[in-house]
Specification:
360 residues; alpha/beta; Arc Repressor Mutant, subunit A; Dna Topoisomerase Vi A Subunit, Chain: A, domain 2; 6-stranded mixed β-sheet; 3-stranded antiparallel β-sheet; globular
C-alpha cells in the first residue's frame, strides 16, 4: 500500500514534468469538493462526490497558490513520510510546509487550513486516503468493551484499560480484530457521557461497546465504527444532544459529509440509528425545566438540516424537528442526570434499546 501511494504521487510529478517538456501550462485536475458536485444516492443512502473536475494551473494568478501548496504537501508525503516510513500529524505537515519562497516575502502557507485543504485535494488526485499517505489527525476518542485487537504488534484488550479506556488512533486501518464480543455499539458525542457509562460498566452489563469523541467525530472514529459494523455486523446507535448539532453528527455518521463525500464508501454507515435524546424523551422524563433556549444561529441550522434530502422525506424526523421548534429549545444528554446519576445506565438506555425505540 505504501509503495502504491508513493507511485501515485510520482505519477503526478511525471504528468507535470511532461506538461513542461511539451510547452504546456502545468496543471492538476482536482475533483470539485462543493455542494454543487455532491449528490445523495437514495439507493446506498450516502452522499457521493460527482465527477466534475477543475484544472489548477501553474500560470494562473488565481490558481498558483493552491497549485504550489498541493505540490509541497505531495513532496512532504512522498519524501518525508512514505519514503522514510514515518507518520506526521496534520499540524506537523503545516509546519513542514510553512516556509518563505526564496527571493520573496511570500510564505507557501500561512494557516493550517491551507495544508489541510491541500491534503484533501491530494487524496482525490492520488485516490489514497490521508492515513494511507501517512498523515494522521489528533487522537480524540475513547472506547471500551469486550474486544481484543492487535495494533502494531501489541495485543490490546479494550476491557482492561482502566478509567480512560483505549485512546482511538486517527489511523485504524492496520488494526486487527482478534476477538469481538458485543451485541451493538453506542457512539456518544460527549466524553463526559462516555465516562458515566464506563464508570457504571455499562459495556460489561449490556455486552456492548461504548465509544466517544469530544464533539464532531474524527475520521478515525468514523472508520472504526464502519469497520465494526461491516466486519462484525454490529448495529451502531448514536447518543447525542437534542439539538441541530447532535442531529448533524448522526447525519454525518449515517450518510457522510459534503467535505468528505469522496470517503463515503469507507466512512458512512446508512443503517446507523439515532438512540437519543429525542423530543419525546423530554416529555416522557419531564426534562422541560432543563431547556436551553434556541439562538438564532440554532434556528437557522435546524432549518438547514430539516431540508436535507434524507430528512426532508422522513415523517419521524420532521416530527422531531417540529418538537424542537415548539419547545424553542435544545436539550443536553446530561439533563437525564436530574433523574439520578445512574439513571441513563440503569433505566434510560436499557429501556430504549430493549424496546428498539430508535430513529432511522
Amino acid at each position: 500500500m505504501r509503495n502504491d501511494a508513493k507511485e501515485a504521487i510520482v505519477s503526478l510529478g511525471k504528468k507535470l514534468a511532461k506538461d513542461v517538456e511539451e510547452g504546456k501550462n502545468p496543471s492538476i485536475d482536482v475533483t470539485v469538493r462543493t455542494l454543487s458536485n455532491v449528490s445523495y444516492d437514495k439507493k446506498t443512502k450516502k452522499l457521493l462526490l460527482g465527477e466534475r473536475k477543475s484544472a489548477r494551473e501553474f500560470f494562473n494568478l488565481g490558481h498558483i497558490r493552491k497549485f504550489v501548496q498541493t505540490l509541497e504537501v505531495a513532496k512532504i508525503a512522498k519524501k518525508e513520510l512514505l519514503d522514510m516510513g514515518k507518520h506526521a500529524s496534520l499540524r506537523d505537515v503545516f509546519y513542514m510546509a510553512k516556509r518563505t519562497i526564496p527571493g520573496s516575502k511570500i510564505n507557501i502557507v500561512d494557516d493550517q487550513t491551507e495544508t489541510d485543504g491541500a491534503i484533501e485535494d491530494l487524496e482525490l488526485i492520488t485516490r489514497f486516503s490521508r492515513e494511507q499517505l501517512h498523515v494522521n489527525a489528533n487522537k480524540m476518542g475513547s472506547v471500551a468493551g469486550k474486544v481484543v485487537v492487535e495494533d502494531s504488534g501489541d495485543t490490546i484488550d479494550w476491557s482492561r484499560l482502566g478509567s480512560g479506556g483505549w485512546s482511538i488512533p486517527s489511523n485504524v486501518e492496520a488494526i486487527q480484530f482478534k476477538k469481538v464480543s458485543a451485541k451493538y455499539v453506542i457512539y456518544m458525542e460527549k466524553a463526559a457521557v462516555w465516562e458515566r457509562l464506563h464508570e457504571d460498566k455499562f459495556w460489561d452489563k449490556q455486552n456492548c461497546i461504548i465509544l466517544s469523541s469530544q464533539g464532531q467525530t474524527t475520521r478515525g472514529i468514523r472508520r472504526l465504527l464502519q469497520r465494526l459494523h461491516a466486519e462484525h455486523s454490529l448495529p451502531i446507535y448514536i447518543l447525542a444532544d437534542f439539538d441541530p448539532y447532535g442531529i448533524y453528527i448522526y447525519s454525518v455518521i449515517k450518510s457522510g459529509s459534503i467535505n468528505l463525500a469522496h470517503m463515503s464508501e469507507t466512512l458512512a454507515i446508512p443503517s446507523v440509528k439515532f438512540l437519543g435524546i429525542t423530543g419525546d424523551d423530554i416529555n416522557t422524563y419531564d426534562l422541560k425545566k432543563h431547556a436551553i433556549k434556541l439562538k438564532e444561529v440554532d434556528i437557522q441550522r435546524l432549518k438547514q438540516i430539516s431540508e436535507y434530502e434524507w430528512f426532508r422525506n422522513s415523517k419521524p424526523w420532521q416530527r422531531q424537528f417540529k418538537l424542537m421548534k415548539d419547545f424553542n429549545a435544545k436539550f443536553e444528554i446530561q439533563a437525564l442526570s436530574s433523574r439520578g446519576i445512574t439513571f441513563i445506565t440503569d433505566r434510560y438506555l436499557p429501556e430504549k434499546i430493549g424496546k428498539a425505540e430508535m430513529l432511522d
